[in-house]
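ok here's the first one, seq then struct tokens
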Amino acid sequence: MKRPMPVFLTFFILGIIWGSLSLTPVWFFTVSLFVFSLGLIFLFFFKIKTFTAPPCLFVLGFILSYNKTNNFNALCDGLAESRTTIRAEGKITDISDNSLTIKTDNFGEFGKSSEPVKIICYTDETQTFSVSDTVSLTGKLNNLNPKYNPSDFDEIQYYRCRGINYKMYDGDISYISSNHNLPYYMSLLRRKAGTAIDNMYTAENSGILKAMLLGDKAYLSDEIKLLYKNAGIYHVLAISGLHISLIATALMLLFRKPSHSIIIILMLFSYALFTGLSPSVVRAVIMMSILLISRIINRRYDLISSISFSAFIILAVNPMYLRDCGFLYSYSSVFGLALFAKPFSDCFKKVIGTSTKPQRFAADSIGASTSAVIISKLINMWFFYSITVYDIISNLVVLPLMFTVILSSALSILFYVLNIKIYVVFAYTAQLILNFYKITASAVTALPYCTITTGRPVIAFAALYIIFIIALKTAISYKNKAVLTAAAAALILGVITHTAEINKDRIAFLYVGQGDGVVGFAEGKTFVSDGGGTKDEPDEKDEGTYTILPYLNYMGKTRVDYAFISHIDNDHMKGVYELIGNIEIGEIFLPKGNYSSELYTLLTEKAAACNIPITYLSAGDTVNFGKNSAFRCVYPFSEVSEEITDINDTSMVLNLSLNGTGFLFTGDITSAAESEIVKSGSDISADVIKTAHHGSKYSSSEEFIAAVSPFSCRNFLRQKQHLRFSQSENNRYLR
């Protein structure tokens, strides 16, 4: 077999996947037997001499992944759970704009942990420390946040992928000593380069160049991140193969002999260390190193084998990278280039022509741009719930100028540090190109259907898309129209499957911290009932931005038809307030009553500016949600709503009938309001109840629960037990 490395990587990845699922021993041995059988098949049909290698790599992947997934530190877990103040000593391994990462195993009076752990400490005093400094840390350990909602940022996955186990807020960090090693000097050099960038460029362009050259995205504004992402050029903000190839090309001009390749490799790994060892950088450096080694030993370089080998090295060090967005995006792009760049270029040459050099360059550029995004579209859908339409066009404009912007900005830093005035010319050139990038990105994002919200793809779609990629490659390689038709059929079937799944009727009770947040979909329409809220400042980003809107995007929704706000407390209204202007809203509903607040006033003004009507409901009002669904308001009563003094008892109580299933949304009403509702004789029976005031002991009276008679409570009520879901119980359930 010409390329065994991709096969070895595939088995290794399968082992990592099985290991991350924490399977039982029976499952493990069953799957291992299956994999060994596959090894025999590869032996006889693909002539792989070492048929035991794939199964052994599968077992290795399983062991590494299982140990990483189930790695617990008894001492630190206990300290974090008990919220005990600790004093630890350790070394700083990384510094960002607002945090230090400290590696330690010494917890003073509590003893030493079984193995070193990394703690990310959020502080404003990062400038007073350097990498490799030994420091004393005093504070309370915090566990990484679990992923409460399916669309939430996975803090555990993100930080554990980077070797970080715990976090600490407002810790007291004291300097002990310095260790002047290579990471220390790299940190100083990186800080000096960052200072030079700050002094030469605008704040916006400074943040972009720090990401491009130093691998530090902490200074990127949210506006630039969103603009570049929607334009399909966000990848230029990450150090990748393009940067490494440019650096390697420049170095090869200085070190021309093949024997000098070792010097180039060492310099490339030094740059990788300088920029923080991100997966894309490590991948590019390993691949370039293989190319340089092949230059030394005079062997032919194979791109796909090189990609596979670099992925194997990174995953062997940390198998959790398999679920990391940066890792997957980097490898999907480079695999796309390896598989499709040449055939796509050949196809475009037939259309554009090959008679002139510009025609050939255009065909090659379009072919490379198309091949780089064809696989990464799936990664975009998985992590960002959307795809960009014009990224091929924007990349054709942006990428040819990358060499100039990197070279100019790097030279501007060098000459600035050396105090040679010519740095102004290079800084002006880089700044001019970055401004052009912004103009291009703004023009692209202004085009219709620039970004299509797709929702997260279901597993069936992901599998069919992979089949589409494999079939497309096969069809192009063997010029088989039947296989090409099969590829198109797989893609169409995947789209149909995905669309059918995300359009199913469902209701999600989201975790929004303090407050309520419910999102429902039925008969092609979307509703939101309350949106949570934990921040006091009206314009401070809150649950609407971080929970409700991401979940709507996760489900592929770009419009909220009905937004219900039970009452004007911030922990119910703030999330909906944030949605206004960020997503299309058809109508907002509030309870009738005599109330006011700063946020309520801002919400009404913001809704008016966006031409969103506000309707006030009282008992007896209905809102039809479709042919088989409707909201019926059962509280407040119009004749007493003006007299209610407790803001919680102004809460709107809604009874939703959704295709024959009943839901009762109760806001924050107290047992007094519950008693009034029961006395009124209103039909409040439902299969599911959202307990009032987050399960407060002053709500959910037994007579009220009995009148509702929710499906999950009936057996308990027969035994005269009172079922109540508190916020803490909900937290434990979600964990």
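and now the second one, same deal
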Amino acid sequence: MNDDRYAALLSRVSKPGRYTGGEYGETVKDKSNVDTRICFCFPDTYEIGMSNLGMKILMGCFNRMDGVWCEKCFAPWTDMEAVLRETGTPLFALESGDPVKDFDIVAFTMQYELCYTNVLNMLSLAGIPALARERGDGYPLIIGGGPCTYNPEPMADFFDVFSIGEGEEALPELAELYRDSRAKGESRERFLYRCATELDGFYVPSLYEVSYNSDGTLNSFAPKAEGVPDKITKRIITDLDKVFYPVASEIPYLDVIHDRIALEVSRGCIRGCRFCQAGIVYRPYREKSPGVLDSCARDCQKNSGYSEMSLSSLSISDYTRLDELIDRLLTWTEDKKISLSLPSQRIDAFYEELMKKVMSVRKSGLTFAPEAGTQRLRDVINKNITEQEILSACGKAFSGGRDSLKLYFMNGLPTETDEDIAGIAGLSQKIVDEFYAEKRPRRSVQVDISVSCFVPKPFTPFQWEPQDSLEELERKQKLLKGLIKTRKIRYSYHDARVSRIEAVFAKGDRRVSAAIAEACRRGQRFDAWDEYFDYDNWCDIFASVGLDIDFYACRRIPHDELLPWDHIDCGVTKSFLLREADRSVKGVTTPDCRTVCSGCGASCLGGERKCCP
């Protein structure tokens, strides 16, 4: 951003590089050739947003369009917010420095429920009314996307449109419809109706009527106008080899969370863990070919100069041509001293040769996710791994030169007992013992276990399950801490109070919008950050708007109850989720999609009716 308007402001904040723009590789267009301007907003800090691959992809899709310019904006940290409010300076985009309120479309990506107050705070800083019904034709169109929009209802009052599913094709269609509607002089309301009726995968909350029963449950959810669909089906990309991928992204000025090349190798997951929303809503499973990935990786490295590359996937070890891909990459990454890192891996698919390959340049962290400490509970959640497979994989890692591992677990899972909690400590100790089963001179082991609290999420077999009470979650955390008897096991856990509010937002209905609006008025923001999360304030906020936290977080939902997200079609049928819920109670596992098709319904998306690979 070559602009003197904000020089005095930037001198007063701790990290001015968050707000200057001007990164190498940023897209700047001649305004005289632009008729539609879009501001892509990430409701968290620059360091987190600049690490987000989805934002880079979607901004690139917009900027490939003639006459369209997409710029970026992040949630300002509290010091910058104070300066903006004190000086009356509206929130601005980083490329041009122009106020966000002057754009045609403002797009928010919602990756995590605890960012909701940041969305409203950014609108406030921009001078844009938070409530959609209070925005007339003079204000930008506010659209939302991302994983949280699979239950958009808690934010429904604030958005004009939600994009459901993958946006590479859908969002340019929205931009073209917007341009057409504006050329015809149509009203905001007319455009929104056309968006709901002419485009697939877009949900317009104002076109639906919601009613409730006397006990607070949903009574009905129905379109207000003819032609508006009863259900909104998510959009997917059927051929990942042909879809746009950003190989010349911006290089951030500051150290960011993931400061490296992110190479997306696949979408979806074949496994079907019953707690995992991503494993359901991103179905069907799709892969990019090694040749396309290798070409993308070469271009990304050439344009960025990065010396580290991460292979991005929900389950990298399920990529069918992983060996071939790594062999291709190593033909040039080794010479250039570029290290390869893999995300959390399936323990049952881990093997020594793969580890040796990715460690050829630099040793990177190794993470496994057993999720539960006992076989019984792993069967309940459909993890489909055994204790022997866990110990064998860890043993291979140790034999390959590792002396530290990180493992992810959860507490508060459905049917969990204290024996299952004790199983986490017991399994961790067995992994330590596995290290010392063979003599390794002058070496010691470190096993880091991170334990999160179970949050029931929409579109999972556990969506009807209650979350443990706050007291029970905290009791289990203390129980596990007392069961760990060695410093070779390092234990960390998530704040149960944060998980409780997350559960309310994850399963909330449209009435939760009132609590979020009130929270913003009271100054809540950056709720995902420990220093700003205030549980007591949130409890008071919900009480002040007449909402019960337990109703959303801790209530077991009857299977025949209308759910706030039932008007969204993620491709996986409710009948499949119900079958999986029943199998979980019985402790019966379901094979992965590659072994046998379980008839989840996702294979019917995108045209040809066939089983997921």
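notes on #2: Confidence is low (pLDDT under 50) at residues 607-613. Residues 234 and 570 are 5 Å apart (CA to CA).
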